[in-house]
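To whoever picks this up:

The nightly regression suite flagged Large ribosomal subunit protein uL18 as changed. Nothing in the input moved, so I suspect the structure step. Input below, exactly as stored in the fixture:
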Amino acid sequence: MAGKLSRRDRIKRGIRKRISGSSARPRLSVYRSNKGIYAQIIDDVTGKTLVSASSLSKDFSATNGTKSDQSVAVGKLVAEKAIAAGIKDVVFDRNGYLYHGRVKSLADGAREGGLNF
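Regenerated output under the current build:
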């Protein structure tokens, strides 16, 4: 089994074949761990991260509440930073995770913050 890809990696490769971030519409990528959730806005043409936010970063203040509540707050934080950087439209990359739970909460928070996708 060591040579086989995990299910999430196979799904992730299929998603990344179809979507890509540009300077006009960068990619909002989500990573979910057991302790935190991370979001980056990436321009794939230049290969640079434009904006990032995390539930474990120093500028994140909503440490209380459930993980889903923290995900909504991270979504709002990344949207706030993106709008400050002049980014309004993004392409959502769920990174192989199901669009459910914390990933959906982050997306809803980003939409509430003003991002369009």
